[in-house]
Amino acid sequence: MKMAGLLANTRRGVFRITERGQEVLKKKPAKIDLRFLRQLPEYQDAREKHKQNPPPAVSSTSEDQERMTPAERLEEAYQILR
After folding, report:
1. Nearest to 19 by CA among 53, 42, 39, 47
2. Which residues contact 43 (CB under 8 A, 6 or more apart)?
3. Do 29 and 54 touch, CB atoms closer than 8 A?
4. Is the distance from CB of 35 to CB of 19 less than 8 angstroms?
5. Which residues contact 81 (CB under 8 A, 6 or more apart)?
């Protein structure tokens, strides 16, 4: 719902409904699920942007990982997840 612009983060774990979200609720949809969100142009735009910026590929080989310290492995995993 955040990608569709229906919700906005105010802080970690707390969301606020946006004006667009209120407009959608006024139409009283039966349910808001992925099928519904895919119909919204804002969601489609956000998905396209996400596809254009894929996450970085894993850069190290198994040999490189054998030479890495556990802290370095954790840092690399963290960077991949980000």
Report:
1. 42
2. 3, 4, 5, 37
3. no
4. no
5. none
Residue 56 pLDDT: 60
* Rg of the chain taking only CA atoms, in angstroms: 19
Enclosing H/E stretch for 51: helix 41-52
Tens digits of per-residue pLDDT, 1-42?
A: 988 899 999 888 899 999 999 999 999 999 989 899 999 999
CA distance 16 to 36: 20
DSSP 8-state symbol, 59? -
Residue 11's beta-bridge partner residues?
14
- The whole-angstrom separation of Cα 67 and Cα 45 is 42
